[in-house]
Amino acid sequence: MSIKVVIDRCVSCGVCVKECPVAAIAMNEENLPEINLDKCTLCGICIDKCPTGAIVRTHQAQKAQEDYDQYRGIMVVAEREDGEIARVTYELLGKATRLSTHLKQPVTAVHLGPATDQEVRELIASGADRVIIVENEELNIPLVGVRARALHDLVVDELPEIILAGSTSQGRPLLSKLAVKFQTGLTADCTGLDVEMPDRHLLQTRPAWGGSIMATILTAHNRPQMATVRPRVMRRLKPDYNRKGEVIRIKTRPENVEDPVKFIELIKESTSKVRLDNADIIVSGGRGIKSPDNFTLIEKLANLLNGAVGSSRPPVDDGWIDHAHQVGQTGRTVAPKLYVAVGISGAIQHLVGMQSSECIVAINKDQEAPILKVADYAIIGDLFKVVPEMIKALEKRQQ
Ligand SMILES: Cc1cc2nc3c(=O)[nH]c(=O)nc-3n(C[C@H](O)[C@H](O)[C@H](O)COP(=O)(O)OP(=O)(O)OC[C@H]3O[C@@H](n4cnc5c(N)ncnc54)[C@H](O)[C@@H]3O)c2cc1C
Ligand code: SF4
Ligand code: SF4
Fold this sequence. Notes:
Rossmann fold; binds iron/sulfur cluster; 21 strands; single chain; 3 domains; binds flavin-adenine dinucleotide; Alpha-Beta Plaits; 28% helix; globular; alpha/beta; 12 helices
């Protein structure tokens, strides 16, 4: 540990000079305090007494700098849903693979609990260079304490530079516990991830201040760097079954799987009738629809395309449609094959919920609407003319 003066904060009051019990601080010719580190006993008195917080401890920054080079590789924490590896795991592997091309480091998928050979093959095909399976049966049970201890031991052994997990009921508490143990930063709910070279910082982008800005956060002085990402925000890579990877099967220490919390039963939230999450096609209506009755147009188009009905937030706020249909930051995150945005301007809070869709079609009368920046196809025109024409054409095709 060391201490230093942050010159920008110093007001040259001289308090630290007077308070230092070993006369380790003196004002220089520019009337700024200088600390003689040979004399300083690191008692911390000047830190407490400085009225502007201009004297700080620097051990974390120094330590991190020294440790940086030990941390290598990207670790993706796999999770399971309904008895199989969850889709978010493959999406994270896709992102990790893209990041690894800059970092030139391997991507390791960690599966806490037994996994089949077929599942391991799928992880490798989706981007994992290495798969570590921690085979203790107890890890199948979603007890966060047990899983966090097993993962902690693995991270100590592996020292990954970056750890990614789903922003889910499994991933969020797991990485929170780990971040506290490692005294490092964690950004939840990222919508974008990138790396800054040559510093190897993970740039973690997410909505902030109630969604009014997009903040890019980095963990400059600590490792590992950790982030969680909501399902369907990142794109899964097309599986490549010719990829080869290293498979490591281990067991965690028996004391790690002992826990004062006992698992009794998993009760799943009753699923909504609206299956936006798994729909291949979604037709969403926004404020441009103008009235609840006009949602029948959206429903008709969605039915003809065999898709689901989505919505931006204003129709939900106005009670035109149930919240279960809302797409966006405070609604669902979706990534269908086709997303048709009808009368939706494309505010950032809406875009974060649908921008990973494979094909986006925007129907809007305003050719400056932000939705057009993410749209693959745009139909500029009055939706009350365009949508009925589409319905007519689709009905004709079905006859
Ligand atoms: C904390 C927070 C969270 C939020 N969460 C969400 C969220 O989860 N999801 C969400 O969607 N929003 C969310 N919002 C709201 C968001 O900021 C926008 O206000 C909202 O997305 C705008 O909805 P809209 O595009 O339907 O309406 P508007 O922005 O009013 O856009 C209407 C569009 O319809 C077009 N239009 C009008 N008439 C016609 C016509 N006849 N033919 C063709 N086009 C027409 C207009 O050109 C315009 O582009 C959130 C906001 C905050 C602050
Ligand atoms: S930490 Fe203590 S010894 Fe060191 S400069 Fe500050 S007051 Fe003086
Ligand atoms: S006490 Fe703080 S503000 Fe005052 S001279 Fe020392 S470092 Fe500067």
